[in-house]
Amino acid sequence: MEGLRQPLLDPSVRNYEQNNLININNGNGQRESLVTEASYKLNANIIGAVVGLIVCIFYWHMQTCDRQVVIWFLLFTIFSCFYCAYLASFIKTQKISNLAYSIATYPLDLVTIGLFIYGFIIFSDLTEECSLSHPFPYYMMLIILIIQLSTFLKYISCGILVLMCIPVVAFILIREYQNRPEPEQTWEDFEENVFNNLEHKTLDSEIQKDYESCCICLVDFEKEDRIIVLKCSESHHFHRECIREWMLRQRTCPLCKQAVVE
């Protein structure tokens, strides 16, 4: 019995079960929030589909208002019915995943924006006589357009935000491009253009006293030694072969660490 109970007391098993429980709860919580959101959208689209259907049935042959008003309501009704069926299938079944529902929101919003733009063009051409003779479709269309405006403005604000960020991103990229380090020369180019142009000296008995030792190899200078004096300071002088070996690895002065340039 003690052996059978041991896995239940193992901390790793306990932590694994707790993590699984947390993941399940998080998934259920996300699903519930999406279902609540879908329920609100479903109710709104049912009302919209009913209103659109009423307009299409009772005002199909109206002459005073623009005929395109009824056509717009017909398109709106068809879209609302399709949207209702999609939302109902998401709420009632598990066939549509949370990710698929979130992704499908974007093309559906684009259709809503298209209906808003088309409806706004139609509504802007309506006359006052239409609002007096057929107030129901006129004001229902106005209310629906106002509701759809929220979806339109959401994407407009995102677009404006992106346009505002483009100059900032471009400035950062240009600055990084300008401040990027120059590619290091190959040793052959460096030796030909920089190293060979440094001050070269051959020590003789008269000047040897001004130069004591090479700080790279720590050997005292002797007569006929070939040395190089760097441009950073007259006191920074080294055996030619020593400084050459040094610069094969790093092209800086061994004493002050300044870059050796032309």
TrEMBL record:
Coiled coil: none annotated. InterPro entries: RING_finger_E3_ligase (IPR051834), Znf_RING (IPR001841), Znf_RING/FYVE/PHD (IPR013083). Gene3D superfamilies: Zinc/RING finger domain, C3HC4 (zinc finger). It comes from the Eukaryota. GO terms for cellular component: nucleus. PANTHER family: RING ZINC FINGER-CONTAINING PROTEIN, SI:CH211-59O9.10. This is RING-type domain-containing protein. It comes from Euplotes crassus.
